[in-house]
Amino acid sequence: MSFENLNIIGERINPGFKSSLKLIEEQDIAGIQQLAIKQADNGATCINLNVGIDVLKDQGFMKDVIRGVQEVVSVPLSFDFPNLEVQKVFLNCYDQDKANGELPLVNSISELRMDMLDLYDIRPFKMILMASERSENGVQSPNKTSDEVLETSLRLVDKIRESQPSVTLSDLFVDVSVSPIGADMEGLVKMAIEAIRKIGSHSELKGIHMSVGLSNISVMLPNLALDGSNLKLGLESAFLTETVPYGLDTILATPGRKYQMLDEDDFVLKGFREAINVGGFESLMEIQKLYIEM
Q1: What's the first-to-final CA gap in the chain, in angstroms?
Q2: Alpha-carbon distance 277 to 90, whole Å?
Q3: Nearest residue to 46 (alpha-carbon basis) of 23, 12, 85, 21
Q4: What is the per-residue pLDDT across 212-247, written as a single tens digit (0 to 9) for each?
Q5: Tell me: the pLDDT tens digits for 241-266?
Q6: Does the bond joining 211 to the residue before it have cis omega, within 30 degrees of 0?
Q7: What is the pLDDT of residue 245?
Q8: Which residues share a beta bridge with 65?
Q9: Going from the N-terminus, what domains does the chain have, and what CATH number goes with each?
Q10: In the chain, where does DSSP find H-type helix?
């Protein structure tokens, strides 16, 4: 069974993908436009743009990408660069009429970057909130427990709504962050699952969106599982199986992948659950059992 009402922010316009890096390096606007069209046609509800660190020196290409993409797709855009000046360019360049009136999405705001709220003076926007890091009493640190993720989410929402009273919970996307499970000895994937369940059941956060960069979970792993299934897709689907029923509704991912709610006896789902339950080095061993004969 596929996941209904799952929003997909198209991730492919990003130098982290080799084919996209080539388009960006060659400043191939036509090629980037085709990539945007493909993602929209495959169901992306938003297109994420990341054109690399050169935007810190030259915003001309960035403006060309934004305008070029908006010429060929009508879904809203997300700009993925945690820098105030760069995001100013994005918001000034964004044409809301070409996105069927939809607000742009700023990726991302955290307790370490609250100055990003100043961008609201340019135009209203939706926000991805990074709940994986916090700042308390001047001390900045990563969150290590699901309770810390929940507490950070609550603080962020309070600060945002105090600064911008017109912002609603439906304008906000809490990104709990998901780590590569093939290298996770700290229980970070389990933490993300628990955090999603806690945020989804919290009365003060009813109506907020939750998101993750889903493809992160399967990096560094082979394509095939021992049972012949697609291991990467299976692990991504396993994470969704454990979280969508509890409120995860948005993923930064590749549109067109056939994510499925997995059956209880699914080979990859069982291995995924075992891995997140045992923790530590044993967790890595459980993941390896999915693709290596032991």
Answers
A1: 31
A2: 42
A3: 12
A4: 999 999 999 999 999 999 999 999 999 999 999 999
A5: 999 999 999 999 999 999 999 999 99
A6: no
A7: 96
A8: none
A9: 7-288 (3.20.20.20)
A10: 18-25, 29-41, 60-72, 84-93, 146-163, 188-200, 231-243, 267-278, 280-288
DSSP 8-state secondary structure symbol assigned to residue 88: H
pTM of the model: 0.95
pLDDT digits (tens, 9 = 90+) for 29-64: 999 999 999 999 999 999 999 999 888 888 999 999
Residue 223: which residues within 8 A CB-CB, separation 6 or more?
230, 231, 232
CA 188 – CA 143 distance, rounded (Å): 9
Helix intervals (H) in 5-108: 18-25, 29-41, 60-72, 84-93
Question: Could you tell me which residues come within 8 angstroms of residue 239 by beta carbon, excluding any fewer than 6 positions away?
Answer: 178, 189, 193, 212, 214, 217, 272
Per-position DSSP letters for 11-40, written without gaps between them:
EEESTTSHHHHHHHHTT-HHHHHHHHHHHH
pLDDT band at 121 (very low <50, low <70, confident <90, very high): very high
Q: Which region holds residue 25: left if phi is over 0, alpha if psi is between -120 and 50, else beta?
A: alpha
- For the chain, the residue count is 294
Name the band, by pLDDT with cuts 50, 70 and 90, for residue 109. very high
